[in-house]
Amino acid sequence: MGGFGSGRRSGTSGRPTTETFPALDIRRVKREGLLESPGGHVWRWFERGEQVASILIEVFPERLILARLADLLSDRRGLIFGRVHLTWTDCHLGGQRPWFVCPGCSGRVAILFLGRRVLCRRCLGLAYASQRETAADRALRRANLIRRKLGWRPGIANPQGTKPPGMHWTTYWRLTCKHRQEALKALSGLRERLGRPPRVS
What we know:
Shape: elongated
Strand order of the largest sheet: 2-3-4-5-6-7
Low-confidence stretches: 1-13, 71-79
Strand content: 25-35%
Number of strands: 9
Number of domains: 2
Mean pLDDT: 80
Structural class: alpha+beta
Largest sheet: 6 strands, antiparallel
Radius of gyration: 21 Å
Helix content: 25-40%
């Protein structure tokens, strides 16, 4: 991920996905306690353990002001690029849930994306990454989800691990069987991309 708004595009149409821009989720902002802590807070995004983006969030009772941290450090203080209002709805079991009000469409959303402006997915015309997946991509993603549940190293080329402590054997065998099915689908799709017929065993 490069600078804000310089993200990669996916698919043949060139339409960017939700992975193109850093995403700010109001639910995580609330969990981190920022809404109860007026003032300035630095928010960072990481990929593979490395910081790829950061902003300064200024918290007010009914809104957030977002600024590029690099702009503040270089004294370009006019480049505050997001004033986002908040709204709240009542929860069924008590309490209230916060929402962002999209600066573009004024819709109530949980997630905003930070490009040249701070907008919701619809205003930016973003597709979900899963909409760009092939059948092989989906199979690979599902296989890796299973590997995560089992505590195995990601990647179907890596060897299988052992049963996690405390997991029932029936659950373990069900997951390993499903993993094998998804891995075979992913490998079959890869062979087709490379122009090789899939092996039949």
